[in-house]
Amino acid sequence: MQLPIYTQNAENVGTIEVSDAIFALPMNQDLLHQVIVSQSANRRQVIAHAKGRSEVRGGGRKPWRQKGTGRARHGSIRSPLWRGGGATFGPTKEKDYSKKINRKMARKALGVALSSKIRDGQFVVVDALNIEEPKTRLASKIMRTISGLFFPTLQSGSRPSGVGTGKAKKMLLVVPTMENTALTKSVRNLPNVEIMEARNLNSLDILTFPNVVALKDAVQAIEKTFSKK
């Protein structure tokens, strides 16, 4: 399978041969759903936590003696029956929401997601992004120009609003490595662009962003990393 290659000025400069085993897979919604649910659960941060009676402050001694006062028996003022006491069966941060997903399933789901983006015209390969020094304004101009390349294969003939009009769209930028500090620093301040190394690519991030821009070297890194059996 061949994909067109563009410059940072949105000019076509040729094609690149990519693997059909990664970039030309048929849609598999069941696999995608299972992998996306697992990856979302593994990213979930457990924040809710209610202190039990052993965690709240105070209540070290018995409030009054067991017998002879005419009052109910209590062993601590931090019992769940007392105001300010510990919670009973409250949420705890020890809860684990993670789900196991097989490596082969995750890799195939990545290929399905990439193939879907290519079919929908939401995947663009760029030869290189030449940014000599960290300049967010320059990176914003380049990404706005590249955003006009999306949706070129729509059959209806109508282009969605914002396409080709200079309006920046939310996109994922895939690079081979983060060694280009000028590019990394320039892009990371853009609110609508997320930069990621090819080795860290996953189906959840691909489907989260409407559009994906990949450098030519990043495409080769994707094939090298995820074509393993």
Describe the structure.
With 229 residues, this protein is of the alpha/beta class. It has two domains: 2-44 and 99-226, 3-Layer(aba) Sandwich (Ribosomal Protein L4, Chain: A); 46-96, no CATH class. Helices cover 31% and strands 13% of the residues. The chain has seven helices and six strands, in the order E-E-H-H-H-E-H-E-H-E-H-E-H. The protein has helices at 20-23, 29-43, 103-119, 136-146, 181-187, 203-208, 216-226, and strands at 2-6, 12-17, 123-126, 171-175, 193-197, 211-215. A six-stranded mixed beta sheet has the order 2-1-3-6-4-5. Strand 1 (2-6) and strand 2 (12-17) form a beta hairpin. The longest helix is centred in the middle third of the chain and has 17 residues, at 103-119. The chain is elongated and about 95 Å long. The protein starts with a strand and ends with a helix. Residues 152-168 have low confidence and may be disordered.
Helix fraction bin: 25-40%
Poorly predicted runs are 152-168
CATH architectural category of the largest domain: 3-Layer(aba) Sandwich
Largest sheet: 6 strands, mixed
CATH homologous superfamily assignment of the largest domain: Ribosomal protein L4/L1
Portion in strands: 5-15%
The ordered H/E elements are: EEHHHEHEHEHEH
SS field, number of helical segments: 7
Quaternary state, please?
A: single chain
How many structurally independent domains? 2
CATH class of the largest domain: Alpha Beta
Quick one: how many beta strands? 6
Class from secondary-structure proportions: alpha/beta
Rg estimate, integer Å: 27 Å
Strand order of the largest sheet: 2-1-3-6-4-5
Inertia-based shape? elongated
What's the N-to-C terminus distance? 20 Å
